[in-house]
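protien #1 (seq + structre)
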Amino acid sequence: MKTRFILIQTSHAGNVGAAARALKTMGFDDLVLVAPRWPNVLRREETIQRASGALDVLKNARIVETLDEALDGLSHLCATAMTPRDFGPPSRFPRQHFEQLLQPQLPPLASRETGIGFLFGCERFGMANEDVYRCDVALQIPTNPQFGSLNLASAIQVIAYEWRQALGGFTTADATPAPSAAVPPRADAAQVAGMLAHWEQALVAVGFLDPASPKKLMPRLNQLFNRVQLQTEEIHILRGVAKAMLEAARAKD
């Protein structure tokens, strides 16, 4: 499905780079800039640094002079406007609108629309009224009512995330598996038994275990350590503790 993110008159080069990064993390790569402040914004050092490796998105990005050029091939337009416009399109939260747009009882979006575009205005003034009027909906990101200011790149990240989730998100099969760390070997029964015997000596030495009335202490400790499924390294640690208890008891005597 064609998904395009359109930045109108962007004034900060860093936001362009951060936008590219936001799109790449969500699996999108169609970025169009309409009359940005810097004609060479895609090659500026700040842009490249803020892209943090999303250089393929920057390479594929286009710069156009008019919004009409940016909208070519799109039929469903989503403005991002926190303030509703008189006579403008309906205002909806992104998740709410995407759920309606992708209702299962309707034909798939790909068969109804040739493409969807998300429009973002300049950092200082947001979207112009005439641009909002061209859109089918004005998306409002739910924010703190007392402080609704969002950085441009942050807003792009939120919209890209919500749209990706609406499309089904990513599965674990899409993820690159992390290199698996070697699993330390589990201690065998003989090692556990040796450690318990060592602990029994130490507990007697420090006066915690009365050999004349041991009750069920050692069997319960045995069950405890079996539930933990001790590793060989942990056996060494526990035996080190037992050794320290024995040495402390001898020093006291």
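ok now protien #2
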Amino acid sequence: MSKKTKSLQPSTAMQTAAISAPSDSLPWGGLLALSMAAFITILTEALPAGLLPLISSGLDVSQAAAGQLVTIYAVGSLVAAIPLTTLTQGMRRRPLLLAAIAGFLVANTITAISPDYALTMVARFVAGISAGLLWALAAGYAARMAPDHLKGRAIAIAMVGTPLALSFGVPAGTFLGALVGWRACFGLMSGMTVILIVWVLAAVPDFAGESGNARRSVKGVVTLPGIRSVLLVVLTFVVAHNILYTYIAPFLARAEMEGQVDTVLLTFGMASLIGIWIIGVLIDRWLRVLTLASTALFGLASIAFWIGDEAPIAIYGATALWGLAFGGCATLFQTASAKTAGPAADLAQSMLVTAWNSAIAGGGMIGGVLLDQFGAGAFAPTMIALLIICFAVTLNARRHGFTA
């Protein structure tokens, strides 16, 4: 071997080691842009609930009709997520992400200026379609931006906008709406969306879509080992959550806490932030354990709601446990789905979005039937039954879905 060849060996070895060694850095600028996208998505969805009287007056409709602005948004997400994600598998990812974000810009701008209820409903449907596409993209996008051993943490960072929107965005928007009007709130969200578009162009990398022979069908993805387990866990966990979340006011009325709904939900939101922080730190090593722990913690909270449903201190304690369990659940489920589906992550995420929105609707319907037929006292035992199923499915998904 020549001296020249020997002199090159250490340099080549170091270069190879540098390339193969996993990076411990995360692309914070891009991940926080995705987090802001999640924030705008949730705020667009939930803000009308805090502004119902103002929207009702502004559009000259009943509050029940104004409430359908939330319903039509969920319907848009439900019907669009899987078809749109299937049709756009071959598109480059950043233009697709920007198209989803632009949908919010158009929808919120129309909502801010529309004098007509029907036009506003169409705008909300468009916003829901954009949300279905964005949620299908977000987790897979975050995972592709991060090194393998930090993919779960990357998804957690991208999802932190969700609890922030629920904990602070909606209350702040409700307060601001009372000061400057509900239309100004939607206009402000349009301004935030313009900033987000610039941010995505500057900080979020582009990725290629799937090549023709790599694309999968819906049937091909849903039959992957573990995917159905993940979807069933999402359905049972989120239905249990929405039975209580949707009808929290009548539930609190049993303890004469009608005037404390905002305080209880603030407690839930603050605990959710702690939950997502814990999940973000630990998820890359303990996905299965954390999912089981979150389900068990939610079950414990449900038992506390059942036993102490007329004691304010018990309700606040149970609410804190509930928020802690729920805060990181979206990150857990999306990470499980992305890891299980592999290259088909985006299509699997669209199924998760559909399951999640179906669970929201299902929780509302089941909770309504329980409330009418048995009263709010029936919520907790029903939630416990659903969470037992959720825990059992997770426990059984050791090899695929929620792997050890």
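The chain has two domains: 28-212, 218-396.
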